[in-house]
Fold:
Amino acid sequence: MKMSDILCQQKISSKYSKFDEYENKKIIEQIYKEKREIKVIKILELTFEELFIIFRRKLNDPNDIIKLEEIKAKIEGLDLLEENNKYKDIEYLIKNIKKRYIVTDNYIKEVKKLCLGYVDWFGEKIGRKNRVVHI
Structure:
């Protein structure tokens, strides 16, 4: 699903009781209507899977490398794939885990494996075939 669809379907937290429960939907509809926030619209048009592939791109999965080439045209003008960008990615997650917890290399390897195989895990739950994930 596109991020815009996911966010529009989600109710906001109940701690924001002064807002409509579907405030995200109203905001996103306004963004699309005004057509001023082109970069935001490009991100909202990406699917969850595409954003997750961008997030984990530094794991260098061969399937992701192919998909990243397909995504590049959709995100032209954004700095999501630059090496020195300001976005938190899989490297940030791993560094944060290592900093906050005492973990083994096998644990980190498993985190990477889960990041690469999440679609297959969910696919298994609905009867799809798995692909092998190598780390």
About this structure: The radius of gyration is 17 Å. The helical segments are 3-9, 23-34, 38-44, 48-55, 62-72, 90-100, 105-125. The chain has a mean pLDDT of 88. The chain has seven helices and no strands.
